[in-house]
Amino acid sequence: MTCFVKTARGQEELTTRSGRLGARARRLRILADGQRTLDELTRLSGDENAAATLQELEDGGFLERVAAAPPAGGAVPTPNAVQALAGAPGGAKDLQMARDFMMNTLRTFNGPYAKLDLVKRIHASRREEELRELFDEWLQAITETTMGRKRADELSERLLKVM
């Protein structure tokens, strides 16, 4: 199984944005963590052309392919196993941290009364999958402001570490 990981240039791009990447490419670069496969990156990014975008990022020196490390015990985790891990001790704490982060950044960049519907849906989410489904909408809302656009990569990276 092949995964993608950020190169030194890809890490640098998080702060400098000198590569002038489009939104889809930036999102995939952020999501690439050395553990996610093409299928996972496609699903998380919502980019039907993720393979082509990942190839562009690889050609540009932002990402490189790595072999995925087999899960402990050699077993491939099933969706039920992933869901069980999300409910493991610490999972609820991380979920709450992710919800708080998303709601606080929306209030900070968009104001306390803007995006209330999105804030309510984030607050009502009870599973990591529900939050991940709101990720693109959250990112789009953040990037509606100038300061949010400047910090979108950093904020996305921080949020995805918690999720």
Helix content: 55-70%
Unreliable stretches:
71-90
Going across the biggest sheet, name each strand in turn.
1-2
> Structural class per helix/strand content?
mainly alpha
The number of helices is 9
Round the mean pLDDT to the nearest integer and report it: 79
Distance between the termini: 22 Å
Using the alpha-carbon principal axes, give the shape: globular
Which series of helices and strands comes N to C? Answer: EHHHHEHHHHH
Rg, rounded, reads 16 Å
Task: Report what the structure shows.
This protein has 163 residues and is mainly alpha-helical. Helix content is 64%, strand content 6%. It has nine helices and two strands, in the order βααααβααααα. The protein has helices at 8-16, 23-31, 38-45, 50-59, 79-86, 91-110, 116-124, 128-142, 146-162; strands spanning 2-6, 63-67. The protein has a two-stranded antiparallel ribbon. The two termini are 22 Å apart. Residues 71-90 have low confidence and may be disordered.
Q: Layout of helices and strands, plus pairs?
A:
Elements: E1 2-6, H1 8-16, H2 23-31, H3 38-45, H4 50-59, E2 63-67, H5 79-86, H6 91-110, H7 116-124, H8 128-142, H9 146-162
Antiparallel strand pairs: 1-2
Helix pairs in contact: 2-3, 2-4, 2-9, 6-8, 6-9
List descriptors.
9 helices; mainly alpha; two-stranded antiparallel ribbon; single chain
Summary of the model, kept short:
The chain has 163 residues and is mainly α. The protein is 64% helix and 6% strand. The chain contains 9 helices and 2 strands.
